[in-house]
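Notebook entry, structure prediction.
Reason for the run: the old model in the group folder had no record of what sequence produced it. Starting over properly, with the input documented here first.
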Amino acid sequence: MPTLAIIQAAQQQVDMKMNLDRSLRNLSVQWKGLLLPIMVLTTMVFAPAHADAKAPVSTISPATNHATPNVITDWTPPPAFLAGMAAIAQGDSAAVNAAIAALKDNPLATYLRFRFLLDSPASDPAPVIAFLQTHPDYVFSAQLKSQTLNSLIRQQQFADYQRLLSVAPELKSNRRLSCQGWQAALELGTLTAQQVKDAEQFWAQGRNQPSYCDPIFKWLQAHDKLTPNLYRQRIKASMIAGNPSFASYLVRAGTSRKIGGLDAYFKRWDEAYKSPQSTLQQALQRYPSYPGHDEQALLIQAFKWLGRSDPQAAHDLLAQLPNSWRINPDEQAEIARVFALKAAYTRMPQAYNWLMALPASVQDKETRTWTARAALRVEDWARLKVAIKAMPVDLAQTPQWQYWLARADAELGKNKEAKARWQALVHNPDYYGLLAADRLGIAYPWPKIPPLPTMDTRAVEKNPTVQLAFYLHAAGLTDDARRAFLSALKEIPPEQIPALTLLAEQSKWHDRVSIAIARMNKQDDPHWFAARFPTPWESTVDAQAKAQGIASNWLYGVIRRESLFMSDVGSGAGAQGLMQLMPNTARWINHKADLGLTTMNLHDPTTSITLGAAYLSYLKDKFNGQLPLAIAAYNAGPGRVRQWLPEDRNLPGDVWVDTILFDETRNYVRAVLSATMIYAWRESKERESNKSSQNTDNLLSLLTPVQASNQTTLSSVKPAVTVVAERVAGN
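New structure, fully documented this time:
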């Protein structure tokens, strides 16, 4: 059957599109691309006749409140769209146009035009520019512009590149656009003196630049624009960035161009980098007077390097600094800030005094919070109060520091003040609100059952971007669907966001539900907990939790924080799937726990949950059943958690959590513990019995004292089984 005839037949395919959609969603991305045309064409040929649908089909379920009905919408894409996608894969422009015409005013018609332009080599930007002029605010316009610009540069169509770039003001300047723009101007003979200067400074950055910058860099070199001063500037920048190997390469490259003095310049910086203390000690003897501008810059950097490796030595040498070196007070304060923070990170007893002594010019959120943590780690409650009161008001008033101010009051015998502060936190059931309730000995302010708001979603469904997002989600075009949803969140009025959230919940689009709830600032509203803390793959989670002897609510808490229930997600570090396991970790725990898995598709939910549950069980056992330590180890690695154990005294669990070194891990542990409690509440309220194997009566019961490392016996833990990886946000 000819392609155009197939597309016409596609209008009569509605009865079979649900089965097709289900099949598509079960395919991996790679296989989907290969099988989509075949499945579409096969289904169309054998489909019975039926009218085409150009709008989503809604059915209103019975509701007691007819003003706020639950609207269940069928977002299965019209068959013409599926045929159009198949035609794009085949490069059949006539069939694509026929599909677009068949879709009429459905937003998928514009999407097909976009995808055809995106997937077709751009020999002429005119169609792209025409599309962008017709759809100036299209959700995917930036993506289309970026890809077309890259294609035009590869094809050396520099005039067309500049023409398209002129209608792309929303594209933020970045390395690629800068280098491509200079290349286009160079080839067209329009390179300005300012562009040359900008390119020189771009070259002088202390890192290796990508290959797409080579054309302008080669021109700079051929025209003697890369001066000895620029080489020294780049060597210095590379050393400050901690990249001595690249600095060494620059020396060789510059020397080959007959630029003298680079080797000696590099060696001086390399000596300071490797031995900052001896460099400074020798300089104190060598320079009784001003050492000169270049040497002064090197010595300032040597102080910072020393401050990161030996804070006490940096502190002592800074005290010997001669006035003749002309290192001004602000620069001295920056040096002091470096070693004071390092002292706090490494739990040195001097940290508190050093941080408190910093001048206001270098005090910020980092220094103020680590001053408080320095006092908290040693349970110096009086100093903790001083540190909190020294914070800016907006920081001191956050739930975190109000909780700790109350803890300090309680420890100092000011129980009335402590109870008042905790009472103010209880209404907000986040991590600190739950702890405050536990400290007061009162129940959490949660409803008896997790409700789900009901409302009319028909108004928000009229938004074309909303329609596009849900159609693409149903079609399995996940990345574009997520982008469209985010764009819809920005487009619709705030009063429609709850309806959009409910629409996503009805579609089991869990990650977008949480993002929409966050946009409403309703993360801690129990009325949205049922939507924000869903229980997909429930039978698998329950079975694996039971098999591994861990709590299903804990397992859900980890899954939610790791991936926000996006099974296809991956991190830059290589972690994959629902539980963001590294491949090496997955193989190791499969063998260690004798799971017998023969395939390692970490994007398969069952596989990910099975491996992740086993790894959590392993970590829980290794850390003597202490969930906060096991959670931290899942995020940062067991080796790091061992380093963070108190050395010579036990530490309250809440103190240990809030003094974890890494911001990411600290936030991660708090989020997982809070989610664990919320899932426990869901289980206990929604089921006849709580199937959790972990006692989660309250959060404080999970925060048992952390034993000192000299009192703790841990079984050998495989090092580096996991790494700190990029985490998916979704609070």
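Summary: Confidence is low (pLDDT under 50) at residues 1-54, 58-69, 688-695, 715-731.
The old model has been moved to the deprecated folder.
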